[in-house]
Amino acid sequence: MEELLSLLDEEIQDPEEECFLLFSNKPNNRDLGFVSRTESTVSVAINSQDFTIHQSPSLLASTREAGTTGAVLWKVTPLLASWLTHPSNQAAQHLLKSTSNVLELGAGTSGVLALSLASMVANYFATDQEYCLKLLRKNISGNYTEKPIRAKGGRKTKRNTEDSQTNITVLPLDWQLTESSSVPDIKDKRINLVLAADCIYNESLVDPLVDTMVDLCELNRDSNDTICLVAQELRSPDVLDAFMKAFCAKFQTWRVPDGLYRDCGDGGRGLVEGGGAVGMRRSIAISAIVRSNIGRGLLRAHIRIPFPGIRYQSTTPAKSRPLAGIRVLDLTRVLAGPYCTQILGDLGADVIKVEHATRGDDTRAWGPPFAPRKDGKPGPGESAYFLAVNRNKRSLGLDFKTTSGQAILKSLANTSDILVENYLPGTLAKYGLDYESLKAENKGLIYASITGYGQTGPYSARAGYDVMVEAEMGLMHITGERGGPPVKVGVAVTDLTTGLYTSNAILAALFSRNLTSQGQHIDMSLSDCQVATLANIASSVLVSGQRDAGRWGTAHPSIVPYEAFPTSDGSILLGGGNDRLFGILCKRIGFPEWAVDEKFVTNDKRVEHRRTLVPMIGDETRKKTTKEWLDIFEGSGMPYAAVNDVHDTLTHKHVLARGMVQEVHHEACGPVKLVNTPFKFSDAEASIRHAPPTLGQNTDDILQELGFTANQIDDLKIEGIVA
């Protein structure tokens, strides 16, 4: 079990956990279909093995709804067999052992899985309804005669017919019955692996299959772990929904890394499109959906075909990352876009940051300060600006102005759930990377564009930076001291709010995709987001028909007292936001009579007499230190706060107690401290899993997931296409 778990994501390598997880991909509208629906005999090649399979196309399953044909071979079964016996399949090495007992549910009549796998395991139990068994036995016995098999080490040998046939047992098991499933007589042998290939073709079969797999896993609850492998062509969204919900009612959700599932047939004949693990107590199951390549791969035949992912909320208490299994392709630079994608990464998404192959994100050079390098390589280190908004990402250095770079990027888009970009409108269309081009290959793609002024409107072609938008869209005019010049906010708040709005829009689009199976284009702009965040100030102008009240510093135009007041060593912000709180303030500073003064008794009166009241309060607050006033107002129920600098903020006892500063290990700079994610869920987890990457730190891994060899990657680096 530990060896198998070591192939999975690091964060879920915990064999002591009670619950493991499930991941699935949404199928497209094409079915793999039959090998042949009409032929009575078909030939099937499974890697080095060739089989002749007898079919009975006219035989209908009387126990199945709508008389579904039950005696012909669907392509998903040989695809699963090809995957399991493929030499490069690391997972299969842990699934198929000479000491294993394997039970197949819904074996049908072909016996393809039994024929392919039985020689590799101790015992193989092929089960199905009674009407299938005669033809199943015929195909098994007919194909065992002197057929070559793959032996340990990859060499070919021949079966000993007498010995090998004894390890296949054909048993009746009608798991489709509505009552509890009856586990067959297996002579007290423990089941190590349960297989089910293309057993679900309507919703009524989902629950019985899940229940039967649970029953079989339960047989081993006091012994070794049981592994269940499900390969399923899901032919309709309704069946997929039922299938996923049935599993997720008992199991948590994750995504198994793409590298676990490799090309399962020569020449791209079939691929495992998605996979995951489910389990309960000491049982674990691996589930995979097998899909055909259909020649759609770019660059190489073994590039994975994308299908929009569907994930459901689990009812189990184990914590997971809300966006685990979601892939984000990040084509953004500087702040708004990277901040958005960092939020998605904090929530568990796999974020691939595509950067210029030589200089990377612009902000890598924005310093000082830089975190100094500790790896002995030249250079100033990593800029603090870049470190702030690029955690939980993988970096791919790529020149997508080249044809090969564009093909790589399209392949990544085809395997992604979300793409976020912040180029000027029309820029990516020149390379065939616009939404309309990419959705032709990936209809579930959610494509978010962040620009200064949006995709439409008279300013859409203009570049827009935070400070320009602050100025043009009203924020700077209302920021600064009363009577002073306009000033920008101390942090690039327009960029940050745009990143926040964009991440919200993406999450909404993900939810919509679960209902419709369709992605969509999201048009986000700094200008729109800045106007939206004017909030009550904009509403006041719209309601009154008058211009805004201008700049108020830390004060509030409609509430008094509500601003920063001087202390003997700094400042303290006091918020007497209503009559009761104003009374508390007066009492704590030693002048309770102010609360009943006719000039101050109500907020509208206090606003009217602001110029009188504010200096009175300031004269008193200057008499004590900030710390003394904090102690005086402690426990009063009135809002108050010291005006801290950023250093004091990051060392504040409450900030530290909430875990808002975290030290991580950076590839080049060693230990660095980062501001943590603010998300805190009761039944999920958001955290810093990875420090911000160095430029191209993950290029090799990402390209290998697309099927590139080490030599091909080296060639791309020499040509300057990747870094």
Automatic annotation (TrEMBL):
How is this protein named in the record?
A: Uncharacterized protein
> A cellular component term (GO) from this record?
mitochondrion
Report the domain of life of the source organism. Answer: Eukaryota
> From which source organism is this entry?
Dactylellina haptotyla (strain CBS 200.50) (Nematode-trapping fungus)
The text of the family note is: Belongs to the CoA-transferase III family.
> What are this entry's molecular-function GO terms?
S-adenosylmethionine-dependent methyltransferase activity; succinate-hydroxymethylglutarate CoA-transferase activity
Keywords attached to this Swiss-Prot or TrEMBL record, sorted alphabetically, are:
Transferase
Q: Which InterPro entries match?
A: CoA-transferase_III_domain, CoA-Trfase_fam_III, CoA-Trfase_III_dom3_sf, CoA-Trfase_III_dom_1_sf, Methyltransf_16, SAM-dependent_MTases_sf
Task: Report the Pfam families cross-referenced here.
Answer: CoA_transf_3 (PF02515), Methyltransf_16 (PF10294)
